[in-house]
Amino acid sequence: MPDSPQAMDALSQNITISIKHMVSSRCMKVIREELEKTQKIFVHKISLGSADISFDPVAVTLDDISRILSANGFELIHDKETMLVEQIKIAVLEMIFYGNNLNTIIRNSDYLGDKLGMPYVQVSKIFSERTGSTLEKYIILVKIERVKELISYGEMTLSEIAYMMGYSSVQYLSNQFRQVSGFSVSEFKSLPEKPRRPLDSLLA
């Protein structure tokens, strides 16, 4: 472990860094461990897409931090629009994977607009310009990966999954699932190994 934050206060620089490709609690664990493994960086707080850190700028540079992240499949974000796109992606992931049936309670556009503090039309425009994909398409891709996960668990009926994910009917979910995944739901269920895409590469 690095020195305590109290011991670092005299010389340390305190900043919040934005990080690309953070999509899970596992990502947060890896980043905390890798940064603190240097013994020169203290992670005060970490969440999807960002980390509050302290470090001695004489001993550690942002280039050093960038190299640590890159070596583990992550990327330090510098420009504001790229940062915003990552915030949009994280908001979508939180809504779909951790929203506790949020899809059945509030419209995606309302949630994302409130979460990001700007009109949904503007959020969608920036996302499309920076990624080459519509935000609506990205939301669908994330939803299908969540549906795959829920099907793999085998704990819910397809009707329950459709309701949870905000689909108007099982048929609508089934059609979209086939269109995106290339499998019917029954075909996917029968596969011994159920293919799922990494969440950080859905637009690749």
Task: Explain what you see.
This protein has 204 residues and is an alpha+beta fold. It folds into 2 domains: 5-78, 2-Layer Sandwich (Alpha-Beta Plaits), CATH 3.30.70; 81-196, Homeodomain-like (Arc Repressor Mutant, subunit A), CATH 1.10.10. 53% of the residues lie in helices and 12% in strands. It has a 4-stranded antiparallel beta sheet, sandwiched between helices. A hairpin with a 2-residue loop joins strand 2 and strand 3. Helix 4 packs across helix 5 and helix 4 packs across helix 6. The model has no long low-confidence stretch (mean pLDDT 89).
Number of domains: 2
Q: By helix and strand content, what is the structural category? A: alpha+beta
The tally of strands reads 4
Kindly report the name of the CATH homologous superfamily of the largest domain. Homeodomain-like
Q: Tell me what portion of residues adopts beta-strand conformation.
A: 5-15%
- Taking pLDDT < 50 over at least 5 consecutive residues as the criterion, the unreliable ranges are none
Strand order of the largest sheet: 2-3-1-4
Report the span from N to C terminus: 36 Å
Per CATH, the architecture of the largest domain is Orthogonal Bundle
Briefly note the CATH topology name of the largest domain: Arc Repressor Mutant, subunit A
User: Would you state the CATH class of the largest domain?
Assistant: Mainly Alpha
What would you report as the Rg, rounded to the nearest angstrom? 20 Å
